[in-house]
Design brief:
Helix content of chain B: over 70%
Number of domains of chain B: 2
CATH superfamily of the largest domain in chain B: MetI-like
Distance between the termini of chain B: 48 Å
Strand content of chain B: under 5%
CATH topology of the largest domain in chain B: MetI-like fold
Distance between the termini of chain A: 53 Å
CATH class of the largest domain in chain A: Alpha Beta
Oligomer: heterodimer
Number of helices of chain B: 14
Shape of chain B: globular
Number of helices of chain A: 18
Radius of gyration of chain A: 24 Å
Structural class of chain A: alpha/beta
Number of strands of chain A: 13
CATH topology of the largest domain in chain A: D-Maltodextrin-Binding Protein, domain 2
CATH architecture of the largest domain in chain B: Orthogonal Bundle
Largest sheet of chain A: 5 strands, mixed
Strand content of chain A: 5-15%
Largest sheet of chain B: none
Radius of gyration of chain B: 26 Å
């Protein structure tokens, strides 16, 4: 539909705008009943999301104006909009940031809507808990997921070695790596990517030892000794040529296209269960997922069912209820569920899950079954990370991890430096 | 202001009484001019001066984008110089980049300009082609292309393989990554080249004729005639390019995915500033960083102007 205005109408319109502005009113069409939605993700996620928004509008709900960005750009844009008093009504939120936004009053508690506009009757309890900050509900989980190792099955077939399974340990990966090196296919593809500065992988490794990355009071949950051992283990994998070189790993900028499995540099890499669907769309080979390696046979408890992402409500008080209604539709409506699939994780409503399961394609089934059958791998949900966790990940773990990988620091020195710098950030202002 | 008051203004000015008359006269003389400048004034004060002053204020606060800023005095500036190793790393990277990219780029631009100045056929075409990288140089697309060229199995290494050289992944090796960005900057030599070319055209031919009659070699002519007479242009280009280099952001941002990796080797000052502001929610500190960058650039420019009288020759 195009709107045409002649000059007279244009002038009338703009003077009306100015008059409205002077009176402190916003023109109706700028506010209206439209809700603004912002989320991170790729084109596939956007297509699904907008289709659900259309379904909602067709059913008489509010119009949704959506906007999506890649993960790295997303937080910049969101922070700027919130700072400018221009926060969207519905905000996709991550476990890492929810405390920060909630405690600063940038998103609204939703408790008053639960049972009314926001139906959460058969919602998973652990996923509901994950969206709470200080006892109040600030985020509705859009799906449960778990960390997982992304596996290129085709590459393993070509090498002629069994792909990693539920019981595989770091030592087993060492053996697979040697098989890859002697087969030397695809220009020397390695068994695994370098996970030494992948935060969830370190977290998982610590949890299997009964430790944690961060404690509930926001301090480091481990010491220098563990960090040195972690860097040493990866040094061993690197020297044996089991994981990719430091140079190759540094090509990974966080975009899906630059990851080691998609670039064909390694046959496995740390990832998330819900990302299998998206990664498969980028690869000619057959991909699957399995759990992170165990530290020794029988060790478990490293994984947890993480709320993959939330919808939170920001912006105008007046539109909060309408936003909650949309979120309710998003997580409960069976037709919406068909469109969304498990792309954002496993749906948290039991009814939705049951309706969806038989209709899923093969890769989505794998993701669903993986999260549903974690068994002894499953540990408790850790507390939300402290506010400085993002900075520690991006500018301490990554930098020191790369220094160790490139040989600018020894694992011993790196372990010590990490603990010192991370502690300084956590205890400082 | 209405026509009526303008009339009274004129008569008041005629009698030369009161300040109102002076204002009216100014209005009558320059009013329309200011009226035409108004759109620019609104932009300049609303979009440039206003935000700049705000950022100066914010640089003395702990603004975190989400909550109200609190005044913390000069703490941000103190932290910058005493307690921030990453600031030091960003300064090292930026100065290395400026010190190498600017002279190399200018030398390259001058070289190409001199080649083009030899009365080539189809000069406008070459000029346009060489200028092209400057037009598209700072774009995201070029930075992505650069990633492809200089990665482990990129075009550069495929070329080197012909000579039996097994090159590293230039872009992701901390030893070379900054150099790939310096090369990218040199490649955008178009705009200084055009200016050099114009400068070369200004040099009177009879000077060269006189020099060759005296038996001066081409080499000597370059050092004794071309370069001295070109110094005003070199000076201009050096200042503009240095400021550009200090402000360089996009290539490093795209090539490292905003991380400054590997090991902070591409952590440009502006990239660090961006990380602090939007990645780690320290807008107050980032504002202080921005103001320090402004001071650095101003100091550099002032220094260049002060020393220019010793090496820039304006002879007309």
């Amino acid at each position: 539909m195009t709107i045409r205005l002649d000059r007279r109408h244009f002038l009338m319109g703009s003077s009306a705008l100015i008059a409205a502005g002077a009176a402190g009113l916003r023109p109706a069409f700028a506010q209206g009943n439209n809700l603004r939605l912002i989320f991170w993700g790729g084109q596939d996620r956007a297509d699904r999301t907008y289709k659900v928004a259309d379904l909602y509008a067709e059913g008489g709900g509010a119009q949704i104006d959506g906007e999506f960005l890649a993960w790295n750009d997303y937080w910049t844009k969101l922070a700027t909009q919130v700072a400018g008093g221009n926060a969207p009504n519905i905000i996709q939120m991550d476990y890492r940031y929810i405390v920060e936004y909630a405690t600063r009053g940038a998103i609204r508690p939703l408790d008053q809507f639960v049972g009314g506009p926001l139906q959460l009757g058969d919602f998973d309890q652990d996923q509901l808990e994950g969206g709470k900050v200080g006892g109040q509900l600030f985020g509705i989980s859009l799906g449960a997921n778990s960390v997982a190792v992304l596996v290129n099955e085709t590459a393993f077939e070509e090498v002629g070695v069994a792909p990693p399974n539920r019981d595989s340990t770091y030592d087993d990966y060492m053996a697979m790596g040697e098989a890859f090196n002697s087969a030397n296919i695809r220009g020397g593809i390695k068994a695994i990517s370098d996970g030494s500065y992948t935060e969830p992988m370190l977290d998982n490794w610590l949890r299997q030892q009964g430790l944690s990355l961060y404690t509930a009071d926001g301090q480091l949950g481990f010491g220098e000794e563990e960090m040195v051992e972690w860097f040493r283990m990866w040094q061993g994998l690197r020297e044996a040529g089991v994981c990719v070189s430091a140079e190759d790993q540094a090509l990974d900028t966080g975009a899906m296209e630059s990851t080691m499995v998609i670039m064909g540099k390694s046959a496995t890499m740390p990832s998330n269960s819900n990302q299998l669907v998206a990664y498969q769309s980028l690869s000619q080979d057959s991909l699957t997922i399995t759990n992170y390696p165990r530290i020794e046979p029988g060790a478990g408890g490293g994984h947890y069912r993480k709320p993959s992402m939330f919808f939170s409500v920001g912006g105008d008080e007046a539109n909060a209820q309408a936003a909650a209604e949309f979120i309710s539709f998003f997580v409960n409506d069976p037709d919406a569920a068909q469109v969304l699939g498990v792309e954002r994780g496993i749906p948290c409503s039991a009814a939705v899950r049951e309706g969806l399961a038989p209709t899923l394609d093969e890769k989505s089934q794998i993701a669903l079954n993986f999260v549903a059958n974690l068994g002894d791998l499953l540990g408790p949900l850790p507390p939300p990370p402290p506010p400085k966790a993002g900075e520690i990940d991006a500018s301490v773990l990554r930098v020191i991890g790369q220094e160790v990988a490139f040989g600018a620091r020894s694992p011993e020195d790196g372990g010590k430096a990490f603990v010192t710098e991370a502690t300084a950030l956590l205890t400082g202002a | 202001m209405t026509a009526r008051s303008m009339e009274t203004g004129v008569s008041a000015a005629g009698r030369a009484v009161g300040t109102q008359g002076v204002w009216a006269r100014i209005w009558q003389q320059d009013g329309p001019g200011y009226l035409f400048l108004l759109p620019w004034f609104i932009g300049f004060f609303g979009l440039t001066v206003g935000p700049m002053l705000t950022s100066l204020y914010l640089s003395f606060t702990n603004f975190d984008l989400l909550t109200t800023p609190d005044w913390i005095g000069a703490s941000n500036y103190v932290r910058m110089f005493t307690a921030d190793p990453k600031f030091a790393a960003a300064m090292r990277v930026t100065f290395f980049f400026v010190l190498f990219s600017v002279p190399l780029k200018l030398a390259f631009a001058l070289g190409v300009a001199m080649l083009l100045n030899r009365g080539l056929k189809g000069l406008p075409l070459y000029r346009a082609i060489f200028y092209l990288p400057s037009l598209i140089g700072a774009s995201v697309a070029i930075a992505i292309l650069w990633r492809q060229l200089f990665s482990g199995d990129g075009l550069v290494n495929q070329f080197l393989a012909n000579f039996g050289i097994d090159g590293p992944s230039w872009i992701s090796n901390p030893r070379y990554s900054l150099w790939t960005l310096i090369i990218l900057s040199i490649w955008q030599f178009g705009s200084p080249m055009i200016i050099f070319l114009a400068g070369l055209r200004q040099i009177p031919q009879d000077m060269y004729e006189a020099a060759s009659l005296d038996g001066a070699s081409k080499w000597r002519q370059f050092w004794k005639i071309t370069l001295p007479l070109l110094t005003p242009v070199v000076f201009f280009n050096a200042i503009v390019q240095t400021i550009e280099a200090f402000k360089s952001f996009t290539p490093a941002f795209v090539i490292s995915g905003g991380t400054g990796q590997p090991i902070n080797s591409t952590l440009f000052y502006t990239l660090y500033l961006y990380q602090e502001a939007f990645g780690f929610f320290r807008m107050g500190y980032a504002s202080a960083l921005a103001w320090f960058l402004l001071v650095m650039i101003a100091a550099f420019t002032a220094f260049s102007f002060l020393t220019s009288k010793y090496w820039v020759h304006y002879d007309d």
